[in-house]
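We emphasize that the prediction below concerns an isolated chain of 73 residues; any contacts that depend on oligomerization or on bound cofactors are therefore not represented. The input was used exactly as deposited, without trimming of termini.
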Amino acid sequence: MNMTIDKRIYDEACICKSVYALANSFNIERHHVSEIEEEWQISVDDECETKAKILAVLNDYKLRGIIEKETHD
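Result of the prediction step, given as a token string:
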């Protein structure tokens, strides 16, 4: 299964942390679609359960980043 991730929504740090957090659960490959496009593509073995898990972890790290920015001071 290939899953495209929009870099306008999830920044580089969020994607890296998510891939690392899931490394023990899934075989994940990350590919940059192109320099022009704001997308990353993630390839995984399983489909339905994996996609839900990846989105949950991405959203978790996205929210952590937002909270860090808001409470940094």
